[in-house]
Write a structure and sequence with these properties.
Shape: globular
Number of strands: 12
Strand content: 15-25%
Length: 311
Protein backbone atom coordinates (compact mmCIF):
# COMPACT_ATOMS: atom_id res chain seq x y z
CA UNK A 1 0.00 0.00 0.00
CA UNK A 2 1.46 3.35 -1.06
CA UNK A 3 1.26 6.22 1.41
CA UNK A 4 0.40 9.55 -0.22
CA UNK A 5 2.67 12.40 0.77
CA UNK A 6 1.20 15.81 0.01
CA UNK A 7 3.45 18.23 -1.91
CA UNK A 8 5.64 20.45 0.22
CA UNK A 9 6.98 23.74 -1.08
CA UNK A 10 8.78 25.35 1.82
CA UNK A 11 9.94 28.94 2.11
CA UNK A 12 12.16 29.76 5.08
CA UNK A 13 12.47 33.41 6.06
CA UNK A 14 14.83 32.71 8.94
CA UNK A 15 18.38 31.25 8.83
CA UNK A 16 17.85 29.04 11.90
CA UNK A 17 14.62 27.69 10.40
CA UNK A 18 16.47 26.83 7.20
CA UNK A 19 18.96 24.89 9.30
CA UNK A 20 16.10 23.08 11.04
CA UNK A 21 14.72 22.11 7.63
CA UNK A 22 18.16 20.81 6.67
CA UNK A 23 18.73 18.78 9.83
CA UNK A 24 15.32 17.17 9.29
CA UNK A 25 16.40 16.08 5.80
CA UNK A 26 13.96 18.35 3.97
CA UNK A 27 16.34 20.64 2.08
CA UNK A 28 15.06 19.36 -1.27
CA UNK A 29 11.64 20.78 -0.44
CA UNK A 30 12.93 24.32 0.08
CA UNK A 31 11.91 26.61 -2.76
CA UNK A 32 12.77 30.00 -1.27
CA UNK A 33 14.86 31.60 1.47
CA UNK A 34 15.59 34.85 3.25
CA UNK A 35 18.48 37.06 2.12
CA UNK A 36 20.42 35.87 5.20
CA UNK A 37 19.94 32.10 4.81
CA UNK A 38 23.34 30.72 3.82
CA UNK A 39 23.63 27.29 5.45
CA UNK A 40 23.78 24.61 4.21
CA UNK A 41 25.56 26.22 1.27
CA UNK A 42 23.25 24.78 -1.40
CA UNK A 43 20.38 26.98 -0.22
CA UNK A 44 22.22 30.03 -1.60
CA UNK A 45 20.95 29.03 -5.06
CA UNK A 46 17.31 29.45 -4.01
CA UNK A 47 15.19 32.54 -4.79
CA UNK A 48 15.52 35.27 -2.15
CA UNK A 49 12.23 36.32 -0.57
CA UNK A 50 13.28 39.15 1.78
CA UNK A 51 15.48 42.23 1.73
CA UNK A 52 16.61 44.77 4.34
CA UNK A 53 14.97 48.17 4.59
CA UNK A 54 18.35 49.68 5.51
CA UNK A 55 21.94 49.64 4.30
CA UNK A 56 23.62 46.78 6.24
CA UNK A 57 27.13 48.04 5.49
CA UNK A 58 29.01 50.27 7.89
CA UNK A 59 30.09 50.34 11.52
CA UNK A 60 28.16 48.96 14.49
CA UNK A 61 27.09 52.49 15.40
CA UNK A 62 25.89 53.31 11.86
CA UNK A 63 23.92 50.07 11.59
CA UNK A 64 22.37 50.64 15.01
CA UNK A 65 21.22 54.13 14.02
CA UNK A 66 19.72 52.93 10.73
CA UNK A 67 17.87 50.04 12.37
CA UNK A 68 16.50 52.34 15.07
CA UNK A 69 15.23 54.77 12.44
CA UNK A 70 13.50 52.03 10.41
CA UNK A 71 11.77 50.55 13.47
CA UNK A 72 10.09 53.88 14.16
CA UNK A 73 7.88 53.32 11.13
CA UNK A 74 7.88 49.57 10.38
CA UNK A 75 7.18 46.24 12.09
CA UNK A 76 10.62 44.92 11.18
CA UNK A 77 13.74 46.09 9.40
CA UNK A 78 13.15 43.71 6.50
CA UNK A 79 10.67 43.53 3.64
CA UNK A 80 8.94 40.44 2.30
CA UNK A 81 9.15 40.17 -1.47
CA UNK A 82 5.52 39.33 -2.07
CA UNK A 83 6.04 39.06 -5.82
CA UNK A 84 8.59 36.27 -5.29
CA UNK A 85 6.26 34.38 -2.94
CA UNK A 86 3.52 34.65 -5.54
CA UNK A 87 5.74 32.96 -8.10
CA UNK A 88 6.90 30.26 -5.67
CA UNK A 89 3.41 29.26 -4.46
CA UNK A 90 4.64 27.87 -1.12
CA UNK A 91 2.69 25.42 1.01
CA UNK A 92 4.60 26.36 4.19
CA UNK A 93 6.40 29.52 5.29
CA UNK A 94 8.72 29.53 8.29
CA UNK A 95 9.27 32.79 10.14
CA UNK A 96 9.80 34.09 13.67
CA UNK A 97 8.30 36.21 16.43
CA UNK A 98 11.45 36.44 18.54
CA UNK A 99 13.16 39.63 17.38
CA UNK A 100 12.15 42.37 14.94
CA UNK A 101 15.83 42.97 14.13
CA UNK A 102 16.66 39.31 13.38
CA UNK A 103 14.25 38.65 10.51
CA UNK A 104 10.90 39.65 9.05
CA UNK A 105 8.09 39.81 11.59
CA UNK A 106 5.08 37.53 11.69
CA UNK A 107 2.90 40.55 10.94
CA UNK A 108 4.82 41.30 7.76
CA UNK A 109 4.55 37.67 6.65
CA UNK A 110 0.83 37.51 7.40
CA UNK A 111 0.26 40.68 5.39
CA UNK A 112 2.23 39.25 2.48
CA UNK A 113 0.36 35.94 2.57
CA UNK A 114 -3.00 37.72 2.62
CA UNK A 115 -2.20 39.23 -0.77
CA UNK A 116 -1.23 35.94 -2.44
CA UNK A 117 -3.47 34.26 -4.98
CA UNK A 118 -3.51 30.57 -5.82
CA UNK A 119 -2.07 29.39 -2.52
CA UNK A 120 -2.75 29.59 1.21
CA UNK A 121 0.53 28.59 2.85
CA UNK A 122 0.70 27.51 6.46
CA UNK A 123 2.77 29.95 8.51
CA UNK A 124 5.01 28.31 11.10
CA UNK A 125 6.31 30.92 13.54
CA UNK A 126 9.23 30.15 15.83
CA UNK A 127 10.00 32.01 19.05
CA UNK A 128 12.86 30.30 20.89
CA UNK A 129 14.38 31.87 24.00
CA UNK A 130 16.10 28.86 25.63
CA UNK A 131 17.49 25.52 24.44
CA UNK A 132 14.29 23.66 25.28
CA UNK A 133 12.42 25.97 22.91
CA UNK A 134 14.78 24.98 20.10
CA UNK A 135 13.93 21.31 20.62
CA UNK A 136 10.24 22.25 20.63
CA UNK A 137 10.65 24.26 17.43
CA UNK A 138 12.32 21.35 15.66
CA UNK A 139 9.45 19.13 16.77
CA UNK A 140 6.89 21.73 15.66
CA UNK A 141 8.42 22.02 12.20
CA UNK A 142 8.70 18.26 11.86
CA UNK A 143 5.05 17.77 12.82
CA UNK A 144 3.86 20.42 10.37
CA UNK A 145 5.85 18.78 7.58
CA UNK A 146 4.91 15.22 8.52
CA UNK A 147 8.35 13.85 9.44
CA UNK A 148 9.88 12.56 12.65
CA UNK A 149 12.27 14.66 14.72
CA UNK A 150 12.93 12.07 17.44
CA UNK A 151 16.37 10.90 16.30
CA UNK A 152 17.48 14.43 15.37
CA UNK A 153 16.60 15.91 18.74
CA UNK A 154 18.10 12.94 20.61
CA UNK A 155 21.43 13.39 18.79
CA UNK A 156 21.53 17.12 19.56
CA UNK A 157 20.67 16.55 23.22
CA UNK A 158 23.41 13.94 23.49
CA UNK A 159 26.01 16.47 22.36
CA UNK A 160 24.70 18.91 24.97
CA UNK A 161 24.98 16.22 27.62
CA UNK A 162 28.54 15.45 26.51
CA UNK A 163 29.50 19.08 27.23
CA UNK A 164 27.59 19.07 30.51
CA UNK A 165 29.40 15.93 31.62
CA UNK A 166 32.75 17.60 30.92
CA UNK A 167 32.00 20.71 32.97
CA UNK A 168 29.66 19.50 35.71
CA UNK A 169 32.47 18.39 38.08
CA UNK A 170 34.12 21.83 37.99
CA UNK A 171 34.21 23.86 41.19
CA UNK A 172 33.08 27.49 41.35
CA UNK A 173 36.70 28.66 41.30
CA UNK A 174 37.28 26.76 38.06
CA UNK A 175 34.37 28.53 36.34
CA UNK A 176 35.38 31.90 34.87
CA UNK A 177 33.00 34.84 34.94
CA UNK A 178 32.00 35.63 31.35
CA UNK A 179 30.70 38.67 29.49
CA UNK A 180 29.15 37.82 26.13
CA UNK A 181 28.82 40.89 23.90
CA UNK A 182 26.16 40.75 21.18
CA UNK A 183 26.75 44.29 19.89
CA UNK A 184 29.67 46.66 20.32
CA UNK A 185 28.55 50.23 19.65
CA UNK A 186 26.47 50.69 21.68
CA UNK A 187 27.32 47.75 23.93
CA UNK A 188 24.77 44.97 24.24
CA UNK A 189 25.08 41.84 26.37
CA UNK A 190 23.76 38.50 25.12
CA UNK A 191 20.53 37.21 26.65
CA UNK A 192 18.03 34.51 25.69
CA UNK A 193 19.85 31.13 25.47
CA UNK A 194 23.35 32.53 25.98
CA UNK A 195 23.43 32.45 29.83
CA UNK A 196 22.38 28.80 29.59
CA UNK A 197 25.13 27.99 27.10
CA UNK A 198 27.74 29.74 29.25
CA UNK A 199 26.74 27.73 32.32
CA UNK A 200 26.75 24.45 30.39
CA UNK A 201 30.19 25.33 29.00
CA UNK A 202 31.66 25.76 32.46
CA UNK A 203 31.39 29.51 32.93
CA UNK A 204 29.37 32.00 34.96
CA UNK A 205 27.38 34.43 32.88
CA UNK A 206 27.53 38.01 34.16
CA UNK A 207 25.00 39.79 31.97
CA UNK A 208 21.73 38.89 30.32
CA UNK A 209 18.91 36.90 31.87
CA UNK A 210 18.00 33.40 30.74
CA UNK A 211 15.06 33.54 28.33
CA UNK A 212 15.00 37.35 28.23
CA UNK A 213 15.89 39.68 25.37
CA UNK A 214 19.48 40.84 25.17
CA UNK A 215 20.00 43.98 27.30
CA UNK A 216 21.95 47.11 26.54
CA UNK A 217 25.11 47.31 28.61
CA UNK A 218 26.84 50.34 30.07
CA UNK A 219 30.63 50.48 29.94
CA UNK A 220 30.61 51.26 33.66
CA UNK A 221 28.85 47.94 34.33
CA UNK A 222 31.37 46.01 32.25
CA UNK A 223 34.27 47.68 34.03
CA UNK A 224 32.75 47.09 37.46
CA UNK A 225 32.08 43.40 36.76
CA UNK A 226 35.60 42.99 35.36
CA UNK A 227 34.98 39.55 33.80
CA UNK A 228 37.52 36.75 33.64
CA UNK A 229 36.63 36.21 29.96
CA UNK A 230 34.94 38.25 27.23
CA UNK A 231 33.32 36.54 24.24
CA UNK A 232 32.47 38.84 21.32
CA UNK A 233 29.64 37.56 19.12
CA UNK A 234 27.90 40.39 17.23
CA UNK A 235 24.63 39.47 15.56
CA UNK A 236 25.06 39.19 11.80
CA UNK A 237 28.88 39.37 11.76
CA UNK A 238 31.12 36.52 10.65
CA UNK A 239 34.51 35.88 12.24
CA UNK A 240 36.51 38.32 10.11
CA UNK A 241 33.91 41.09 10.40
CA UNK A 242 33.79 40.56 14.16
CA UNK A 243 37.57 40.83 14.42
CA UNK A 244 37.51 44.11 12.47
CA UNK A 245 34.67 45.55 14.52
CA UNK A 246 36.13 44.44 17.87
CA UNK A 247 38.85 47.07 17.55
CA UNK A 248 36.16 49.58 18.58
CA UNK A 249 36.54 48.20 22.09
CA UNK A 250 40.24 48.95 22.15
CA UNK A 251 39.50 52.64 21.69
CA UNK A 252 37.81 52.85 25.08
CA UNK A 253 40.22 54.38 27.60
CA UNK A 254 39.58 51.66 30.20
CA UNK A 255 39.64 48.63 27.90
CA UNK A 256 43.22 47.72 28.76
CA UNK A 257 42.42 47.71 32.47
CA UNK A 258 40.00 44.79 32.19
CA UNK A 259 41.17 41.47 33.66
CA UNK A 260 40.16 39.54 30.55
CA UNK A 261 42.26 41.83 28.37
CA UNK A 262 45.29 41.62 30.66
CA UNK A 263 45.17 37.82 30.82
CA UNK A 264 44.48 37.32 27.10
CA UNK A 265 41.00 35.88 27.61
CA UNK A 266 39.13 37.92 25.00
CA UNK A 267 37.70 35.96 22.08
CA UNK A 268 36.08 36.86 18.76
CA UNK A 269 33.58 34.45 17.23
CA UNK A 270 31.41 33.88 14.19
CA UNK A 271 28.23 35.09 15.86
CA UNK A 272 26.32 35.02 12.59
CA UNK A 273 26.83 31.31 11.95
CA UNK A 274 26.52 30.17 15.53
CA UNK A 275 25.42 32.04 18.65
CA UNK A 276 22.72 34.19 17.09
CA UNK A 277 20.94 31.41 15.21
CA UNK A 278 18.60 29.53 17.56
CA UNK A 279 18.58 26.27 15.66
CA UNK A 280 20.66 23.08 15.55
CA UNK A 281 23.97 24.97 15.53
CA UNK A 282 23.37 26.30 19.02
CA UNK A 283 24.87 22.95 19.98
CA UNK A 284 27.95 23.85 17.95
CA UNK A 285 27.91 27.17 19.82
CA UNK A 286 27.96 25.31 23.13
CA UNK A 287 30.94 23.26 21.97
CA UNK A 288 32.72 26.46 20.93
CA UNK A 289 32.12 28.02 24.35
CA UNK A 290 33.33 24.87 26.10
CA UNK A 291 36.48 24.93 23.97
CA UNK A 292 37.02 28.61 24.84
CA UNK A 293 36.20 28.54 28.55
CA UNK A 294 37.53 25.11 29.49
CA UNK A 295 40.34 24.33 27.03
CA UNK A 296 41.84 21.73 29.35
CA UNK A 297 38.71 19.61 28.78
CA UNK A 298 39.68 19.11 25.13
CA UNK A 299 39.09 20.60 21.70
CA UNK A 300 36.05 20.30 19.43
CA UNK A 301 37.97 21.68 16.45
CA UNK A 302 36.39 25.11 16.01
CA UNK A 303 39.39 27.34 16.70
CA UNK A 304 40.31 29.36 13.63
CA UNK A 305 36.94 28.89 11.94
CA UNK A 306 34.36 29.48 14.68
CA UNK A 307 36.47 31.55 17.05
CA UNK A 308 39.89 33.10 17.62
CA UNK A 309 41.69 34.82 20.50
CA UNK A 310 41.53 38.60 20.17
CA UNK A 311 44.63 40.64 20.88
Amino acid sequence: MTTFTPPRRIVSLLPSATEIIAVLGLTDFLVGRSHECDFPTQVKALPVCTEPRFNPAGTSSEIHDRVTAVLQSALSVYRVKTEVLQELQPTHILTQAQCEVCAVSVGDVEAAVASLTGCQPQIISLQPTVLADVWADIERVATALDVSATATIAALKQRVNDCRNLTQPLSASQRPTVACLEWLDPLMAAGNWMPELVELAGGRSLFGALGQHSPWLQWSSLLEANPDAIVILPCGFDLERTRQEAHILQHHPNWASLKAVQTGRVYVTDGNAYFNRPGPRLVDSLEILTEILQPEQGSFGYEGTGWQPFR
